Amino acid sequence: MTTTTEVDLDVATYCLRLGDDSLVLAQRLCEWAARSPQLEEDVALMNLALDLLGQARSLLTLAGVREGRGRDEDALAFLRDEPDVVNVQLVELENGDFGRTMARQLLVAAYAVPLWQALCASTDADLAAIAGKAVKEVAYHLDHARSWVVRLGDGTEESRRRVQAGLDEVWPYAVELFELDPLLERLIARGVAADPAALQRVWRVTVEEVLAEATLAVPETSWRPTGGRSGAHTEAFGYLLAELQHLHRSHPGVSW
Amino acid sequence: MLVTTADQVRQVLAAVHDPEIPVLTIEDLGVLREVSVDGEHVVVTVTPTYSGCPAMDEIRADIAAALAARGWDDVEVRTVLAPAWTTAWMSDDGRRKLREHGIAPPGELLLQIRPRAVVACPQCGSSDTEELTRFGSTSCKALWRCRSCREPFDYFKAH
Lengths: 256, 159
Hints:
The complex is a heterodimer. Helix content of chain A is about 65%, strand content about 0%. By secondary structure, chain A is mainly alpha-helical. Chain B has four helices and seven strands. Chain B has a four-stranded mixed β-sheet with strand order 4-7-6-5. A three-stranded mixed β-sheet of chain B has the order 1-2-3. In chain B, about 35% of the residues are buried. The mean pLDDT of chain B is about 90. The interface of A and B includes residues 47 and 125 of A.
């Protein structure tokens, strides 16, 4: 039995944040199953969700190990209540139409690529191993989102109107991806976590480049959501969590 | 009782196939990373293709079952993430089997994001092919179409 250190607890929380981001976005994307504009897109979105779910499983498993309280991936995914789930609000927002979903995919993937690239060099070997898998997967996610945002933005009047409206709605929430707090500062100092300021610079360049190609306007931000990392969520979140957790809670220990 | 060797274990594992692409064994695919034997204790190390590969649970169970059927009960299947799996680990035999099965084998790694390279149609061999969608029936495949024979086909993505 090894002793849990302060660093272990910090890493556990960091993994929980990243894992919750992936888990919640995977759950949202699954709502597109059998509802996508075309069959290929149905398959694509489920593939993206599957990648995110796989990343979430690795991250939550590692969080459970470091936390040292005997919780596994299932306990963390299915048995935490809303205030204990620490994803950014961006990923829990309702899908809206396809344009809005693609706008969010762009904002998240443009962050995930530099995030996992940076974490490949994390001093935490287990986190770096997860990053080594994820970095290859999210490259496809960014490419997918980029091509749709360009196609919709530089498409018909209607597709352009919708993707711009969706982008305007989700845009303010992206700021939460780059929040810095004392826990992150400690982990950055140890070379474990990625520096959000550096991620934001890369993110901004990527997103502006895609929006320019899509002939879309970069939205103006007039307000600043916050709180996801401390368990404050939007109204839509409780419904998502209920759907995600009900099977496991209604039938504890059930297996296929 | 014969002494168990890693080679004997590998011979048994040569019959364990990928449940989603049954034409490939887990060794062809590069998912089987290591076999070690310590007395009666067998350790088999595997790595997933993609983080969310749903076949992994089945592969782990198949490994344990195949070895149990040959009398090895003390089997531990370990899953490692690093080094990250790459299609570069796919055996030449595996590539040939894929082609014969109608799946275009993965190309060079540099092409992973924007495959502009030639992907030969596994049906007719034509190089006049196009990508329909980057995401296919499993995480590791994309859907392509041959402009010559007009048949769609799966392409195993370089990863």
